[in-house]
Design goal:
By secondary structure, the protein is an alpha/beta fold. It is 44% helix and 16% strand. The protein contains 6 helices and 7 strands, in the order ααβααββββαβαβ. β4 and β5 form a beta hairpin.
């Protein structure tokens, strides 16, 4: 078996394990998994970052009868139980991210090509903790998103423009 085949098999196995964990969480939360919801959850855990419409398209490629509203309602349920998180990456529709079972992380986003790099930086977390203590806050949640132009786009000489259309998103690095 080639290294590429081994990685694909390993990725499928992780995806199946993630699906089973999410399935258990939903059952513990008394959320019934209809066949449509099961398909939506299975497809959602196969992505890292996605828009609702990308998920609709992906789900309908497998089962065209699944209603758009069902996908949106299921996404809301997944968000409520902490399986996905909704992000506004400044461009276009909100993105969802599978966060179940992933360590806390922050994001770098290229405003030109849409590359997203997930990163963990203990010094950033330490500084946030110091700020929270200084102002005597009880932190409930936070997000940290850095926007810029990636190395590949700079090498291509891509001009930085304020976009009216979103760049196509892709994830470069996975933290989990």
């Amino acid at each position: 078996m080639t290294q590429s085949e081994t990685q694909r098999l390993s990725s499928k196995k992780r995806m199946q394990e993630r699906f089973e964990q999410v399935e258990q969480l939903l059952a513990q939360s008394s959320i019934r998994l209809t066949p449509e919801r099961r398909l939506i959850v299975k497809r959602a855990v196969s992505f890292l970052h996605f828009t609702a419409e990308e998920l609709v398209k992906d789900v309908r490629a497998e089962d065209p009868s699944v209603a758009r509203a069902t996908v949106y309602r299921t996404l809301a349920l997944l968000q409520d139980v902490g399986v996905v998180e909704k992000h506004d990456f400044r461009y276009g529709a909100p993105n969802y991210e599978l966060t179940f079972g992933k360590a806390h992380h922050d994001h770098l986003m290229c405003v030109s090509c849409g590359e997203i790099i997930e990163f963990q930086e203990p010094r950033v977390e330490q500084l946030q903790d110091e700020v929270i203590r200084r102002y005597d806050y009880q932190l409930l949640s936070h997000t940290h998103k850095l926007y810029g132009v990636c190395r590949a786009c700079r090498r291509k000489g891509t001009k930085i423009v304020h976009r009216s259309t979103p760049p196509a998103l892709h994830v470069e690095e996975i933290v989990a």
